[in-house]
Design a protein that fits this description.
Number of strands: 7
Low-confidence stretches: none
Oligomer: single chain
Number of helices: 4
Mean pLDDT: 92
Helix content: 10-25%
Order of helices and strands: EHEHEEHHEEE
Length: about 140
Amino acid sequence: MEILIEHENKLPIAASSLLKFAENEKIFLFRGEMGAGKTTLIKSLCLQLGMIDNVSSPTYSIVNEYVFPKGKIYHFDFFRIKNEVEAFDIGFEEYLMSGEYCFIEWPEMIPSLWPEHFIEIKIIEDEQGSRKISAQIM
C-alpha cells in the first residue's frame, strides 16, 4: 500500500487507511530519515484510535504509554539506544507480547528483536516536502 501526503491535513485519512490495511496487526515499525514525519504519523494514528491525550516523541524515555478507549498504545523511539540490551532492560519483549498497539520508531536499532509479524511503514520525504508512505505486512 502506498499513500502520498502533500499536506499534513491529509494525515487523518492516511492514518485511517493504514489502520484498515493492518486489520488486526498491532505492531508497527516506522522507518524514515530524521524529520520525515514518523512521530507526526503516530500522533495521527493515535487520534484515529480514539486517544485524546497528547502524543510526544519518547526520544529520551524510550517508551511512552498512552491509553485509548480500547486499551493501550506503546510508542517506542530507539534512536538513542546504544545496543539491543537497553531494549531488553525496559522489557521490550513483554510489550510486544501484550496484545496492545506498539508503534516503534528507529527499529533498525533493534533488528534481532523484531517480531515475527508486523506492519512496516516507510516514510520518504520528497524535495517539495510531500511524504510517500508505504505500508507492508511482514
